[in-house]
Amino acid sequence: MSKASSRNYQNDTGARYAPCHSARYAPHGRPWACIYLAICMLTLSACNKKPAARLIAFPIIETANAFPELRAGSRSNKGGADGAHSSFERAISRALESEPETEEAATVTFQTIPLGAGLVGVVPLNFDEWRWASDGNTTMITHSAAGQSPDALIYIEGFGPIIKAFPSVEMTRFQKNVDSGAPQGPNILSTLAGGLSVASENFDVPALALLESLESATSATFGLGIGYHSNARSFTGWRWLGKNAQGITLRLGRNSGVWGPQKAPDAQSRQAFGALSELIPELSQIGDQFAAFGQAGSAAPSVRVPRRLAYMVFGSAASRVDGDQGVHLAILCEQPGCPVAHELADFLASIRRADSDQGRLGASPSSSLPAFAQGIGINLAPAESLVSPDKLESLFNQLSF
Description:
401 residues; alpha+beta; 8-stranded antiparallel beta sheet; 12 helices
C-alpha cells in the first residue's frame, strides 16, 4: 500500500472511529448521535428510579367541630367569643387576670376513666354530675343534674375481632346496637339466611330474625339500643377524621333524632332469642337474659326518662395505625343547646393510651355496669353473657341443618 493510500485509509478509519467529543466532524458528524444516546440513557435511568414516598401529615382533628354548639359562627353557640374555648381554657384565661376570684375559678380537676382496648379518657371530677361504670369492654358515662335524667351519655364498646377483616360490618354492627333508627348496612351472615330455612320453620321464626338476634347478642344492648332513634337522612357522613393531640385516630360522624326510653323487646325478638337458646345449648344463658329484659320493671329507672330531641356523635377511636385496636363511641346530648358540649369535645380530645397516662385513674364505680344502666332505664347484658363476633360463623353453622 502506498503512503498516500495508507494516509487516506488512516484518515478514513479515523473519521469512522473518531471519539464522540471530537469537534472535527461537527455538526454533521457522530457527536450528535452520541449526545442523543446520552439523553436516552439519562431518561431511562430516571424512569427506573423509584419515586420517594411522599410523607403526608395526618390531619389533627378539632373535636369541637363535631358539636353544632361549638362550630365557629354557629347560632347555637351562645357563648360568643368565649364559647369557642373549653372550661379548662376559660379557667386558665381567668387565672391570668388580676381579679380576686380567679384563684378558685382556675381549679379544674378531672377523673381518668378506662375505656377498654388500652385507652383512657377524662371527664370533670364531679361525682354529683359525672358518673360512670365499666366491665372492661363496655363503658357508660353520664352527665346529669341531681335528681334529673341524663342530658348527656357516652356509650363505648371495644372493637370486635372482625374489625380487621370486615371493618364496615363491625362499624355497622355497633351502630345498629346503639341507634334503633340506623339504616341497614352490611351483615356478615345475611347472605347465608337461606341455610336457616329448616330451623326457622321449626320455630316459626323468620330466618333473618334469627340472624339479627344472633348478631345483636354480640352487644351489651342486645339490639335494643340506648333509647335513641335517629331521623332518616340526618347522617353527616364521616366528616371528622384525624388524630387528636394524644395521637389517637378519631373517625366521627353525627346524626339527629329523638332520645327517650330504651326500646322494649318485641314478640318476634323474644321468639327468636328463645329459638336460639334451644338450638344452641351454649346460648341458653342469652335466651334467659333477653327474656328478663322483656319483664315489666326489669330496668326501672331511678329518674324519669323523657322523650326529647337530641343528636348523636358516633364513630371510633383507634390506637394503632392499622386501626384494628380501639373502641366504638356513641355520644348523646339533648337539644336544643347541649349543656356540656365543651366537656364532651374535651373528652374526645383527651383520649389516649393508658400506658401514657400521667393522671389519676378515676375511682371504680360502686355499682356494676348493668345496675348502673338500669338506674337510667337501660337494660345491658353482663359481659359473660355476650357472644364474641368472631364466633358468629361457627354458631351459624350449628343452626344450618
